[in-house]
Queue: 2 jobs
Job 1
Amino acid sequence: QGMEDDEDVDLELLLDVLRRTRGQPQVRRESSWGAWSDLLQAHGRRTTAREGARRGGKEKAATELSQKSSQQQKSSRFRKDSSDPESLRTRDKYQRVQADRIRTAYRDGKAQVRLLSATDIVTSSSISWDVPCALKFYQDAYGIVQGCTPSTARQGVCSRIVVDEFGEPDEMRDLAIATEAAMVNLFHQGGSTSLAPVSSLERLGVKGGLLVQYFLAKVKLRIMREFGLEVIYDSGALLTRLKGDPPRDEWDVEPGHVYWNPHVDKANIPTYDYSALLYLNTHGKDFHGGEFSFIDDDADRIVQPRAGRLLIFTSGPENLHQVREVTRGTRYVLAMWFTCSKEDQYRDED
Ligand SMILES: O=C(O)CCC(=O)C(=O)O
Ligand SMILES: [Fe+2]
């Protein structure tokens, strides 16, 4: 027993990560501190426009699978916080797929590919890297929602997308200040402090609260546009502060807490479909360490946080990732998750 379910997830698709960019992404290098982007430029030259992408056999198979999936929509159902056997089975299966991905892909000595450094600025509207979707993984949570579930509109292709200057410097600074104020006298786990902003709008103050609501809506619209979706629903948000030198005080409920575990967002909350990270400050300037890394079988692919940078990606096992340990300074991020399941959308009472 045990292993049979794993075959449902088409993980061999993950073995050959397709790297393609869409349109004509442009990246400029900031002249002041740090110097890097040759790798990126080399990458850009090798990529082809998404529209011109060849539809290979794997993608065709993925389309067929997606069509088949839509006919079997009600085959299983995950319910958040539920202990019914179906939900427990789904959660258990998702955790096993995550463990499998970690076992295969998380190891020392891998190639380190920097997709974007903090000093690179994406000047085109966005830059994207495509990865094959783990389609079955999406189906099992609540069925397929055409026009929303990752890849249903895109022949089995999932993505990682970066938009720079999504938030203005002033907005990012104001939100970081509001976050810092809201986190006074809050419990923390070692270097990590998190706050669910939607249920703590008063705590964030008028400006901070408005900024969170504004960016939730703006990010949602951007995801719909980037992925060509008809609908999408909120599924939760978190403001997180990571400190390189965590204070050893009475608010520390878990000294030495490890927040840099590799994980699949959807393995932890099966109804998540799209993940978004809006960085409020900048690697190398405001903090050291704290890089975001996609953990692929062949390489780690790194995006360094930069104030105003939006990183969005599909939440399934095609996007195993980690945030690396912050070694110095303080890092702020607004993380947001979205679902295609109307029934599972975030409600304040949750
Ligand atoms: O802060 C980041 O860059 C990533 C955070 C993350 O992966 C998560 O909260 O699930
Ligand atoms: Fe995550």
Job 2
Amino acid sequence: MSGKDNSRRPDDQTKKAHQAILRVRGLTKAFGEKEALKGVSFDLLTGEILGILGPNGAGKTTLIHCLLGLIAPTSGKIEVFGLEFSRHRIKILERMNFASNYVSLPLSLTLWENLMVYALIYRVPQPGKRCHEMLKLFDLEGLATSPARKLSSGQMMRLCLAKALINDPEILLLDEPTAGLDPEMARKTRKLLKRLRQERGLSVIYTSHNLQEMEEISDRVALIREGRLLALGSAEEIRSRFAAQNLEEAFFRALEEKNVS
Ligand SMILES: Nc1ncnc2c1ncn2[C@@H]1O[C@H](COP(=O)(O)OP(=O)(O)OP(=O)(O)O)[C@@H](O)[C@H]1O
């Protein structure tokens, strides 16, 4: 988006690095009797890739949905770009984006049409050029005129990632972004995220069940179980917190711990 380009020069990003771009405080979400999130607090730093790790039902998707404003938290506070989320949702979401392996895009539209719809929603400058760039980035150029219904699940994920980057977001929320991608495309996606973090100061929150990938790509990892944040730190800090050789071992130790502080 043209208006904000000056604020994303590398020197500005250096100044902004290590500042919180997103703050979550005491976030709780109850679905009736079920408390999916129980007082979760953390910061996402500018230019950071933060991995959210937790078993099935831990509350990862609920957290992402709260951060997107798809569901309202029961209590707690979310602040993004220094603005309170509940009061500035539209303004904030213009500068964010999202991809998930369980959200499919309109199936009857072609890939080109799908991207163009989002380019126009986000008021992207030179939308046609941007759509071409995104299709190229994810090796989807040959399918530009195919309806999305013809895509394999991996191709659909690539289209979701292309859509997620269409507005050059400052914060990207990714729910299992590499699930369903073949190893080569998963590697390419990780490389791309690292590059965008480096070049554009992109900040990323992403969930994955691939612990090796999480260890490789994340600056910090948040371990969630039963709606509670158990630990937050670099993979090394998490390993040492649970006296583990690797993140996978730390993950299983965390799950075994009965009373975690
Ligand atoms: N709309 C809902 N109504 C009732 N309960 C819900 C709802 N959404 C989520 N839950 C419950 O909240 C808990 C957290 O779910 P959530 O989908 O956030 O977990 P998750 O960590 O993303 O799991 P997974 O790894 O399986 O995707 C689960 O117990 C789930 O059953």
